[in-house]
């Protein structure tokens, strides 16, 4: 099982570190050919405007949409969650339109230092540490989304089948719960259909 991590800018290395701790193989993704080698994909935090432009220029925009529509798993954190949303505000920008949610950019946390909150998460029994760095607010989550964690009454971790989005940065804490969950999603969704 190979997990691709979009490696244009942002904190892609932190995701690779977390995944390697869990024994997963990782690959940096900068081209469509890189993506084709992968069973799952992480869209890391960073600047969603820059990342979106890169995806459009490199043909990765359509390739990632096809990757999702083929049923393979994608996990977007912060800027990555913005890319997965169907509607982006503050300021408005385009996106991959893969998850039915409206996000408001630059809502939680500061530019230079992160804000840390603790909140309940359906994936574990105790509170989860959530690091926010100018993270988006999920203003509206469609009925297709399961809310796995909330902070201050707003969803911060949501899933629709093979797609997972966090407005915080689980890769920046030592708690591997969310990455473990994503690896389970990859393995569930990369399973080849049984032949007749
Ligand atoms: N505010 C950034 C954006 O809109 C996201 C910040 C982050 O990924 N830490 O792209």
Layout: helices, strands, pairs:
Blueprint: E1 2-6, H1 12-21, E2 25-29, H2 32-36, E3 40-43, H3 48-58, H4 60-69, E4 73-77, H5 79-84, E5 85-89, E6 99-108, E7 115-119, E8 128-132, E9 135-141, E10 146-151, E11 154-160, E12 163-166, H6 177-189
Parallel strand pairs: 1-2, 1-3, 3-4, 4-12, 5-6
Antiparallel strand pairs: 6-9, 7-8, 10-11, 11-12
Bound molecules: glutamine (GLN).
Glutamine (GLN) is lined by residues 45-48, 78-79, 82, 105-106, 133-135.
Structural commentary:
It is a single chain. The chain is an alpha/beta fold. It has one domain: Rossmann fold. 28% of the residues lie in helices and 35% in strands. It is built from six helices and twelve strands. It has helices spanning 12-21, 32-36, 48-58, 60-69, 79-84, 177-189; strands at residues 2-6, 25-29, 40-43, 73-77, 85-89, 99-108, 115-119, 128-132, 135-141, 146-151, 154-160, 163-166. The strands form three sheets. Strands 2-1-3-4-12-11-10 form a seven-stranded mixed beta sheet. It has a three-stranded mixed beta sheet with strand order 5-6-9. The protein has a two-stranded antiparallel ribbon with strand order 7-8. The longest helix is centred in the last third of the chain and has 13 residues, at 177-189. The chain is globular, with a radius of gyration of 15 Å. The two termini are 24 Å apart. The model has no long low-confidence stretch (mean pLDDT 94). Glutamine binds next to α5 and β6.
């Amino acid at each position: 099982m190979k997990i691709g991590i979009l490696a244009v800018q942002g904190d892609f290395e932190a995701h690779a570190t977390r995944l390697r701790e869990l024994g997963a193989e990782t690959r940096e993704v900068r081209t469509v050919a890189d993506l084709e080698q992968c069973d799952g994909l992480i869209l890391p935090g960073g600047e969603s405007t820059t990342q979106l432009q890169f995806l459009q220029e490199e043909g990765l925009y359509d390739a990632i949409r096809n990757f999702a529509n083929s049923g393979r798993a994608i996990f977007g954190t912060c800027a990555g969650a913005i890319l997965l949303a169907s509607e982006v505000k503050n300021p408005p920008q385009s996106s991959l339109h893969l998850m039915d949610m409206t996000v408001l950019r630059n809502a939680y946390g500061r530019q230079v230092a992160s804000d840390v909150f603790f909140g309940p998460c359906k994936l574990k029994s105790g509170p989860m540490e959530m690091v926010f760095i100018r993270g988006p607010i999920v203003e509206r989550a469609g009925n297709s989304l399961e809310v796995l964690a909330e902070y201050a009454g707003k969803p911060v971790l949501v899933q629709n089948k093979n797609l997972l989005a966090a407005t915080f940065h689980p890769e920046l804490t030592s708690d591997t719960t969310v990455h473990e969950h994503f690896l389970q999603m990859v393995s569930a969704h990369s399973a080849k259909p049984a032949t007749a």
